[in-house]
Design goal:
This protein is an all-alpha fold and about 140 residues long. The chain has a domain at about 75-135. The protein has four helices and no strands.
Amino acid sequence: MTAKDLMIDFINLVFTIIIIGLAIIYFIAGDNFENFKKILESLAPLGLLMILFLINLKFWQEKAKKKQREGNMEIILRLNFFDKLKSDFIVFSMPTIILLIAFFARGQVDLFDLIEALIVFVLAYLGQKWLFSKEKL
């Protein structure tokens, strides 16, 4: 490790300790255990997704090591226009599906749900544009 890497790790450690310390002070000293319970309940689905991501990442690392040993790190996709249309349909229907899930779960759609659907749409749209921008005409 270089001195720059050590300094960055040290800054990350100090930042992490400060965040944890402030959280402990807020939740324990501020008597906000109810908020802590709500945060933990809302983090449970995110934790499940992170576990699935880490499992998937492990498989991809093994695949990447194999491809690197073979000297072939390139992925070639053969997509047709129908695949592009399916991708468009998925990207444009995701916000609607998110809003429908919120509506059926709570009986209403609020501003947070709209912002969430918009963020998902923008990220998916930008990802799709990035992927299909490599298209050779």
